[in-house]
Amino acid sequence: MAAQLFAFIPHANSRIDDTAPELAAAAERLFPGVPVTALVTGAAEGLEAAAAEATRFFPEVWKFAHADLAYPNAEILRPLLARVLPRGAVVLFTHNTLAMDLAPGLAVKLDAAYLPDVVAFEGLEGTQLRAVRQEFNGQVSTHVACDLAGGAVVTLRSGCFPAAGELSAAGRVVDRSGDVQGIAARRRFLEVVAAEVGDVDITKEEVLVSVGRGIGDKENLPVAEELAEALGAVVSCSRPVVDAKWLDKSRQVGTSGKTVKPKVYLALGISGSFQHLGGIKGNPFIVAVNKNPKAPIFQVAQVGVVADLLEFAPVLTEAVRKAR
Amino acid sequence: MNILVCVKRVPDTAENEIEVRPDGTDIRREDLVYSVNEWDNYAVEEAIQIAERTGGSVTVATVGDADAEEVVRREMAMGAQQGLMLTDAAFEGSDGRGIAEILKAAVARGAYDLVLCGAQADDGAGQVGGMLAALLDWPYASLVNHIEVLEGKKLRIGREIEGGNQERSEIDLPCVLSIQTGINEPRYVGIRGIRKVASVEIPVLGAADLGLDPSRVGRAACRVRKLDYFVPPAGAGAEILQGSPEEIAARLVDLLKAKGGLK
């Protein structure tokens, strides 16, 4: 099948997102040789720079400039995209918090299929796209078939498609700003409030003792704190620990928390969802302690211990103290 | 404010290891412990707190079979006044769009100012809230971690965005919001609370009651179909240390020393 292909390009601070070349690569994998049109929205200089950079990866870049798009408000972007995209189009997004806001409703407005958070494409048979998704926080994967006949909105997990190289000849920018007129937003952007700075900066630590849901209760935190103290490390955590208000948000590692780059990362009772792993950079030495031998964390850790952290961590603390 | 909260009964990942059946058609469901989807539980708590502040009532709805009634009842025990079961053989196998169509029909039968969903559930798609809003042509916000009710049929909301930052905006009512975990501390539900609502009548509505065209829902309407479940072939993975806890700890100390984890 031939389809019109589009890629929505996230950008910030005058730079396109690292995932933009991944979108180009994914599109090429889906429909080899079919040109992809990049969609870049925003205002002023930041937009101009991002649109220009996008031409390095996409043969055509549609630029939408409007003061109301200075911050990407899904309630303006959705009607805009529904207005400019042709019926039957296949539109790729990076699976980020903007796409989660914008894309499901866009699929409805385009009367297209919606395929979220794809980690791989496995081929096209007729109009049926075979793709891989994950469920239960990455514990199991699924093959899904998505019918592209009526178009589709597809969001791609970042880091799952190798980035495309630059085009031999830069693409061209088409100014579509005239299409933005007359969209009344029923949600009005006010401000972005930066995450709180905590008592310690886990992004600067070389050794982290990180706890997850397996810690079980706030009362058990000293088990991790004592190990951290023995190691000269700091305690960080995964999201459930913050949701339960056991530790401060500033201690959270993950895409919705901090990005850390330690030398050594001890993951205690952390299952290892991709959102959590997305916050660990710089290839640290990862030690995982988890009761569940099938926990995804064991796939990325160098060393694993299948044990209840509440039983094992005190033994390790003692061994560390003796080694001092 | 009258609030509808959409909830789903899901396998509780804190209580279960999720395993794939040998034939790959499904996960092993025989011995699974089910509960209300964690995100939905925060949504119900938020709805109850808003209704306590502003008046009005909270209705908890689910699309599911008779087994799903237990989660509706549990959320009613938290303080939701009404429950609603959306049950029909024609609904089985619906994709996200199908579920949104069913919920849209349920919203249209009521007089709701606000609809809350969890930001995502067991399949991690995070799609139903946004689709429901689009079908209703109501404004939408996802990943909401703060809600303030303002004068003049508006809310001030916060969305959790990358890096733990919060995006603040104003949104007109009626609207649909998908709720992120951590927005509140969901109240505990005891046996006594469950008993209190054990005999409350929960209406059950099917496709005909909702005036739904059955061709828009169910397996036949799916544009996205799940073909199978599988566990991806494991990479090298971790070296699993064996031995007594003391032996493992001694080996780990050596490794940590070598890798700069013990200074």
Describe the structure.
The complex is a heterodimer of chains A (324) and B (263). Chain A is of the alpha/beta class. Chain A folds into 2 domains: 176 residues, 3-Layer(aba) Sandwich (Rossmann fold), CATH 3.40.50; 122 residues, TPP-binding domain (Rossmann fold, 3-Layer(aba) Sandwich), CATH 3.40.50.1220. Helices cover 26% and strands 29% of the residues of chain A. Chain A has a 7-stranded parallel beta sheet with strand order 7-11-6-1-4-5-12, with helices on both faces. In chain A, strands 15-14-16-17-18 form a 5-stranded parallel beta sheet. In chain A, strands 8-9-10 form a 3-stranded antiparallel beta sheet. In chain A, helix 3 crosses helix 4 and helix 5 packs parallel to helix 9. The longest helix of chain A has 15 residues. The radius of gyration of chain A is 22 Å and the shape is elongated. Chain A starts with a strand and ends with a helix. The mean pLDDT of chain A is 94. Chain B is an alpha/beta fold. Chain B has one domain: HUPs (Rossmann fold, 3-Layer(aba) Sandwich), CATH 3.40.50.620. Helices cover 27% and strands 26% of the residues of chain B. A 9-stranded mixed beta sheet of chain B has the order 9-8-7-10-6-1-4-5-11, with helices on both faces. In chain B, strands 2-3 form a two-stranded antiparallel sheet. In chain B, helix 3 crosses helix 4. The radius of gyration of chain B is 22 Å and the shape is globular. The model of chain B has no long low-confidence stretch (mean pLDDT 94). Strand 10 of chain A pairs antiparallel with strand 12 of chain B.
